[in-house]
Structures are given as structure tokens and as C-alpha cells.
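So, can you check this one?
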Amino acid sequence: MVRVMIVEDDQATRQRFADAISGNARTTLVQALGTGREAIAQLPAARHLPDCDAMVITVFGDERNVLASIEAGAAGYVLKYCSDADLIEHVIELRAASAADEGA
């Protein structure tokens, strides 16, 4: 089971992603927050999860923005207007890749 925290400022997008994550048997929603500040406030409670990955939700799919996200520490990205099925697959693939890296 992949645990997911969503941080998205647009309420409608946040709710759509939260519903997708909650409604899938392979994922579980930990929290859905509206700001980075709220997420940072939750990090002390999540320190027991050292294998946490960050995935950027973005409207910008160009190479410059994708690279900037990865350089800032994101392990992956997903376009904001992707389908719910694509969102789930990106999340699952990100965790699978991280798990493989941890085992190497």
C-alpha cells in the first residue's frame, strides 16, 4: 500500500487527486493540504517515514521546469491535468522505483 500526502493549492484539483488516491486499492490518502507551509508543519509527525518521496504536481511539462523540479528534490512529476488513472500509475511507479533504489 502506497501512502500519499497531497499538497495542492487549487481546492478542486486537491479534492480530485484526494478522491483518486482514496478510491484506489493500491494507495491510501494520509492528508490533503493546501499549502507547503501546512505540509512542512506535518513533517515532524512523518519522520518515521524516511523513504518519503516528493512528486511535483504541475501545469508545466516543459524540460526546463521538469529539470528544476528534480534539481529541487522531486523524485517525479505529474501534470496537473492528467487522468486519475495516470496519477495512480505515476505514484505507484515512483514508489516502485524508489524501493528498487533502496534495495540496490
